[in-house]
Amino acid sequence: MLAHLPPALQNLQLPLRLRLWDGHEFNLGPTPSVTIVVKDPQMVSQFTHPSLDALGAAFVEGKLELEGSIGDVIRVCDEWSQALLDEGEGNQPVRSAHDKEMDAKAISYHYDLSNAFYQLWLDSDMAYSCAYFETGSETLEQAQQAKFRHLCRKLRLQPGEYLLDVGCGWGGLARFAAREFGAKVFGITLSKEQLALARERVKAEGLDDLVELQLLDYRDLPQDGRFDKVVSVGMFEHVGHANLAEYCKTLFGAVKEGGLVMNHGITAKYTDGRPVGRGAGDFIGKYVFPNGELPHLSMISAEISEAGLEIVDVESLRLHYARTLDHWSERLEDNLEAASRLVPEHVLRIWRLYLAGCAYAFARGWINLHQILAVKAHADGSHELPWTRDDIYL
After folding, report:
1. 77, 130, 168, 358: the active-site residue
2. Who has the most CB within 10 Å: 10, 76, 163, 205?
3. 358 noted as active-site residue
């Protein structure tokens, strides 16, 4: 049995069992909580260099099967990878070209998958972004509503104000801002599937007079300062490092003087934006978010400032996103049979790894989530923000 395995694997102490193609089993440590079933004998040679992208790809392609909770699988595979690889291996900065056609295809690949699939594990408003847990004990539904409220309060949104929602998704925030704060909202997305369902929900709630949603690239937004406030949730991750300057300038041009701009998005651990996790970022780039690039907080902050906006508040919600993803992963795992009828098997495998893996990554500080509030000050440098944050938490 040992002859099947490279010597480097025989000295590991991990709660992992390998079940080989011929039925032999080998425990890499006591009391295994995870079993990897090896379907392809060629995989064994890669086990001495177990990058997370290679292991993930093998599972997606059916070369491996996994037994055990998906959370345990992610944790044990990371421990395995950590034992045999250096942290820096495979973690080089990625730079992708981003034009309108490429970005539209990338968004369609990810978001036009199946509305019904997303409905299995998202909240009822289908908020596909970090929730906000005010006590930590909220349900996913409660935390997503709290996130909407937190964003609107930070924007000091008032009845009748014109709000631009960049990357509006399925329209949950747009409807909330109109319904709860009396704002008029213009939302844009590049996903046709999202737009269709979002418009249905706007109509169903009788919000047609307040909410307008369009299929539009952010680069085509009007630059006449017509919007009182701007909110962008989960958007700048898709922009690309090379286009961050244009993106921030576009938001600057869209908002009026004295107006507020909120950017809510995932940020990188390292200042040059290189990924962490021994190949985990490569897996996401190949299978989940084509051409996605995470900027460091310093990078996106610099571009916001260079565009002429003044940053007035920054908040990290890293652990909030870890908990959000735990909820999503658990809900997907509870609905695997239904999910298998909505998406192909390899797609479901991708998403199982992606949701659980991202929960793990946020919990361990591989990536972060920041809300960055900025103001377009008047020509004399003034603005109308309150002296304190007290109003946000009323």
Report:
1. 358
2. 163
3. yes
